[in-house]
Design brief:
By secondary structure, this protein is of the alpha/beta class. It folds into 2 domains: 309 residues, UDP-N-acetylmuramoyl-L-alanine:D-glutamate ligase; 137 residues, Mur ligase, C-terminal domain (Protein-Tyrosine Phosphatase, Chain A, Alpha-Beta Complex). The chain contains 16 helices and 17 strands. The protein has an 8-stranded mixed beta sheet, sandwiched between helices. Helix 3 packs across helix 10, helix 4 crosses helix 5 and helix 7 packs parallel to helix 8. The longest helix is centred in the first third of the chain and has 19 residues. The two termini are 39 Å apart.
Length: 469
């Protein structure tokens, strides 16, 4: 049989040659590009691996990646073999799918593509819109990888929306919505109610839902859908409540110097005292409460998860690009904030947790974002602003256009360059040891600058794997 690819480089080229929302202008996409019948057919050709593996399915405007990592680490600490599917990646495609913290290997990627390639080619030849997209193929690869590695459970992060996302063919033990706010409005809807309808599309009949949505309009939509599908609903602030303590020196009761906060969580099942939270910001405390709620639902459904495993798993969480501090003098923060809610969480955390003589911002974003709105939030919080654009991705807003938008909302002087490397070098020249540099506006700019800062250091995933695990 003819092989689809022979090398890792060919495998990556094969994937990136497909339709890819992450890499293409949003205005080129419509509802026909997000449909489940095509994904269902691809998985059927592969033997429906998604039906053989129970899942935790997580959607949300922000926080879904962090919450997925928390749930996965707790399940791993409980002794289960756990698959984790997230997007996008930081350095390499293989990071999107991991088993017990270890990403897919390059040779494994080659073999998986050769395995599913004939099925993809068969669909490519089918008349109509049956050509599988980049994300559909990626999701299928993850399911086959998890099936081959015989995982006990998969934690699946939704790529976009929920109802029509290719992950929505999973067999969940619990579903979870971290938050609902405005993002990807052209595809998901202009109102919070419409966005909530799309995200609550992951609700399954009889399967418990954990919901962290705060706007009452969004809550009502989730409540209605859960009621219609007889899905038990635990809501943050109602069935799930919490209290928390932050640590300025990041030292919790355990003595660990990595703890940002400790949280006491009350669910309908039990009370969880003094759970460590390593990720910074109040929004991560909320994510931790949601993760604990999901763990309690899993316990109700027969999964054996000891209290010590919950604490150990939460202690093991590492999540790059979530208010990640790369340096202390000056403080260098990279964060993947790319919508109003995540930018508001970032600026609130910086204002509360970091004292600095001056604050410097490196900012780049995508064409399809509320750029003016994001700049109105960010500009007042920083003393020096450097505008740029990320590379290798046509969704990037050109820095000249970014500068035009910036000048339409503020008359303050800013620096600008089309090269992220030059933006980073300028920030280094301008910053003193007592200052703070923040890189944000998109996952892609945060990842690109992160690589520059961590150049010549150990592999990203080696640094973030818990010791001895």
């Amino acid at each position: 049989m003819t092989r689809t690819v022979e090398t890792y480089e060919q495998a990556v080229e094969y994937l990136y040659g497909r339709i890819n929302y992450e890499l293409v202008h949003a205005d080129r996409f419509g509802s026909h590009d997000f449909k489940l019948d095509r994904m269902a057919h691809l998985l059927a050709l592969l033997g429906n691996p998604q039906q053989k593996i129970p899942a935790v399915h997580i959607a949300g405007t922000k926080g879904k990646g962090s919450t997925a990592c928390m749930v996965a680490e707790v399940l791993r600490a409980a002794g289960y073999r756990v698959g984790l599917f997230t997007s996008p990646h930081i350095e390499a495609f293989e990071e999107r799918m991991r088993v017990n913290g270890r990403p897919l290997g390059q040779s494994d990627l080659v073999e998986l593509i050769n395995e599913i390639g004939p099925s993809v080619a068969e669909m490519d030849r089918t008349p109509g819109r049956w050509k599988p997209t980049y994300f559909e193929i990626t999701t299928a690869l993850a399911w086959r990888f998890f099936e081959q590695r015989e995982v006990d459970i998969a934690v699946m992060e939704v790529g976009l929306g929920g109802r029509l996302d290719s992950t929505n063919l999973c067999r969940p033990e619990v579903t979870l919505i971290t938050s609902i706010s405005r993002d990807h409005m052209r595809l998901l809807g202009e109102s919070l109610e419409a966005i909530a309808e799309e995200k609550a599309g992951i609700v399954k009949p009889g399967i418990p839902m954990i919901c962290g949505a705060e706007p009452e309009a969004a809550r009502r939509v989730v409540q209605r859908i859960c009621r219609d599908k007889s899905a038990p609903l635990w809501q943050l602030g109602r069935e799930i409540t919490f209290r928390y303590r932050e640590f300025e020196d990041r030292t919790g009761r355990s003595g660990s110097t990595d703890v940002a906060a400790e949280i006491d969580v009350q669910t309908p099942q039990r009370r969880w005292p003094a759970i460590p939270v390593l990720l910074r910001g109040f929004h991560q405390v909320r994510n931790a409460a949601l993760a604990i709620g999901a763990i309690d639902v899993l316990s109700q459904r027969g999964w054996m998860i000891a209290p010590d495993a919950v604490r150990q798993g939460m202690q093991d969480v590492r999540c790059p690009l979530r208010i990640e501090v790369l340096s202390e003098r000056p403080v260098v923060i990279v964060d993947a904030a790319h919508n109003w809610a995540s930018i508001a969480a970032l600026t609130a955390t910086i204002s509360r947790d970091f004292s600095a003589r001056r604050r410097l911002l490196i900012f780049a974003t995508a064409r399809d974002k509320d750029v003016a709105g994001h700049l109105r939030l960010l500009l007042p919080k920083f003393d020096t602003v450097i505008l740029t654009q990320y590379l290798g991705n046509p969704r990037a807003l050109p820095v000249t256009e970014l500068l035009r938008v910036c000048r339409s909302v503020s008359d303050r002087p800013v620096h600008w360059t089309s090269q992220p490397s030059q933006a980073w070098k300028l920030a280094q020249r301008l910053a003193e040891p007592a200052d703070l540099i923040c890189v944000t506006g998109s996952f892609f700019i945060a990842a690109e600058v992160r690589s520059m800062v961590l150049d010549n250091l150990p592999s990203v995933w080696e640094r973030f794997l818990p010791a001895g695990r």
